[in-house]
Amino acid sequence: MSENNILEMNTDNSGLGKVEIAPEVIEVIAGIAASEVEGVAQMRGNFASGVVERLGKKNHGKGVKVDLTDEGIIVDVYCVMDFGVSIPNVAAKIQDNIRQALLNMTALEVDEVNIHVVGVLLENQKQEVQYNQEM
Questions:
Q1: Share of the chain above pLDDT 70, in %
Q2: CATH homologous superfamily for 23-134?
């Protein structure tokens, strides 16, 4: 891997050039794949991503951290679950969805997909979130 954290794709030598994938691309793909799973209430971000979303730009990589190591690609996902769902089942679905999305879109095998459940969203909190988003 290169020192500037860009992942070079191993392609056959067709003479057309090389393909590089930035870790931010992997974050976006993993973030979208995780948020598509039923039972995930929201992805956890930091203060900067919250400010960006308030300005109207959707941050699809929010709540996802990608590490490119010598051993391979490690994806950490930080999410909030809906109340009443089976957390182990939803976490397994998130892992499968991320692995499949990355394999289909980038042909990359992920070594680890770690799910960090950082909260549970209750029903009355959902209504507050929807009300604040409408305003």
A1: 73
A2: Cation efflux protein, cytoplasmic domain (3.30.70.1350)
